[in-house]
Amino acid sequence: MIAKVFLALTSCAPWLKRAAWRWWYQRLAGNYRGQDWKFMNYGYEPELKSTLTLSAEDESDRLFIQLYAKALEGVDTHGKTLLEVGSGRGGGASFVARYLAPQAVTGMDYSANAVQLSERLHKAPNLVYRCGSAEEIPFGDGIFDIVYNVESSHCYGDTAKFFSEAHRVLKPAGFFCWVDFRSPKLMEEEHQRMRNAGFEMASDEEITPCVVRALDLIHGRKMEVISQKVPGFLRNSFAQFAGVQGSEIYELLKKRELVYHATRCRKRS
Ligand SMILES: C[S@@+](CC[C@H](N)C(=O)[O-])C[C@H]1O[C@@H](n2cnc3c(N)ncnc32)[C@H](O)[C@@H]1O
Q1: Could you state, in order of their start, the residue ranges of all structural domains in the chain?
Q2: Which pick of 113, 121, 223, 257 has the fewest CB atoms within 10 Å?
């Protein structure tokens, strides 16, 4: 039942999707405020061992960080201004700010609790967090070099609006880097919506096996945390949300009835 609710939330009426996900993420960031939980994505583990060097304190988040590194792979971030849409608990924007030498990173999320939590958990001179909706980005036209978006857009009521907002806030020739999952048919539709927003496709890669590999590697740790920290009546919801082995989302990714893609687009110059 819980699994069906989470899956239904990826494809229900736009207003319900927005409201339900906002309620869920507000609750999560309001109730679970620990330092030890900085990411909310499924992770990425490449086929060959990653060469990404991380500090000891970031090592335990490697799988989640690797998804960010994949999203931005091949895009020059040095000295650039970046906007993350759907920055969650802030760990991804903090990684980008500290490791990829940008001039400035703004992490944006529509959950005010998540933004507040991110400000408390992560500090860097080139990093700020702001509250705002992906479908109405609260920034002017043409001000970012790169907009990136990690496993967040499946929550949005209107992705066409989001892609056109991302396009609007980018400078000419700016990059839009996107990673998320959809059914194969919806994935094609999302790519068409990106083109309709005015983007040129720079690259697109299906990364489902690398995401499933990460889910396998992290399964034990997630189950341990869920059993220690989550009250009994909520454990099944958390297990489904976290995509543990046997959850509906895990099984659909494994069968590739849901596919996970890393897509990079460019605004025309
Ligand atoms: C699965 S979490 C991923 C968070 C983060 N990117 C990460 O990888 O850890 C999805 C995030 O998207 C945010 N979100 C959902 N809908 C949004 C919207 N319309 N505008 C801005 N943020 C949104 C949620 O509040 C949540 O923090």
Answers
A1: 17-206+260-267
A2: 257
**56 C-alpha to ligand 1 centroid (Å):** 26
The residue with tokens 């239904």 is 8
- The candidate with the shortest Cα–Cα distance to 113, out of 178, 8, 40, 166, is 40
Cα separation, 16 vs 21, whole angstroms? 8
β-sheet bridge partners, residue 260: 181
Report d(CA 100, CA 81) in Å as an integer. Answer: 11
| pTM of the full structure | 0.94
For ligand 1, say whether the CB of 90 is within 6 Å of any of its atoms: no
**Chain segment 39-65, per-residue pLDDT in tens:** 999 999 999 988 899 999 999 999 999
CB 75, CB 266: distance < 8 Å: no
Pocket perturbation via mutation, ligand 1, pick of 36, 42, 155 by most ligand atoms within 8 A of CB: 155
Best CATH choice for the domain 17-206+260-267 from the list 3.20.20.210, 3.30.2310.20, 3.40.50.150, 3.40.640.10: 3.40.50.150
